[in-house]
Amino acid sequence: MPYISEISSSKPSDLGNATAGKVYDILDQLGIPYECVTNDVVETMEECRELDEKLGVQIRKSLFLCDRKKTRFFLVVLPDDKSIKTKELGRKIGVSNPSFAPAEYMEKCLGALPGSASAMGLVNDEGNEVELVIDREVADAEYFGCNAGINTTHLKMKTSDLLERFLPEIHHRPEILEI
Q1: Could you tell me if 111 and 18 are in contact, meaning their C-beta atoms sit under 8 angstroms apart?
Q2: Which CATH number fits the domain 18-177, given the four candidates 3.40.50.720, 3.30.230.10, 3.90.960.10, 3.20.20.140?
């Protein structure tokens, strides 16, 4: 059982990396309400179940993918219990045979290590190299749960705030698809 702090509605004091700091600063600057916890490292969706219970929201699964030439990158956000067929997804996003992007590209584009990919990591994608793809079920949910750019702090916010305020602020527009 991992350690999980009490829920807070303000930026944690110990963030663990610069990405989380940027995320919380932008949320605060925009006046976007959120609830957050700090926690022991979690690296799998199974380990996130206790976070789901604590925050009252499903932590979303984020997959960092690329094309064969490693010239197009995609962050695919979906419910934690949903799997994808890469060939099918490839048809929908216009890429044949997308695959997991190498860790060095994830770190370069999202400022994240494997196990920490999150829509919040897009604060580091200033060149808009990453295409954000969000599953329709996630986009239609009232709340959105994810890590803040490192897998030791997780947050809950309204999905509408993510889509209509946070992502436009960091110059990212999601493609919402039935995955």
Answers
A1: yes
A2: 3.90.960.10
- Is pTM beyond 0.90? Reply is yes
The one-character DSSP state at 35 is: E
CA 79 vs. chain centroid, Å, equals 11
What does the angle CA 35 – CA 145 – CA 132 come to, to the nearest 5 degrees? Answer: 130
Q: Report whether 57 contacts 144 (CB < 8 A).
A: yes
How do the domains of the chain map onto residue ranges? Answer: 18-177
DSSP characters over 82-140: ----HHHHHHHHT-SS-EEPPHHHHHHHHS--TT---GGGGGG-TT--EEEEEEHHHHH
Contact 177, 170 (CB under 8 A): no
Average pLDDT across each block of 10 residues of the chain; the chain has 179 residues. List them in order.
89 87 97 96 84 95 95 96 91 93 95 92 96 98 96 96 98 96
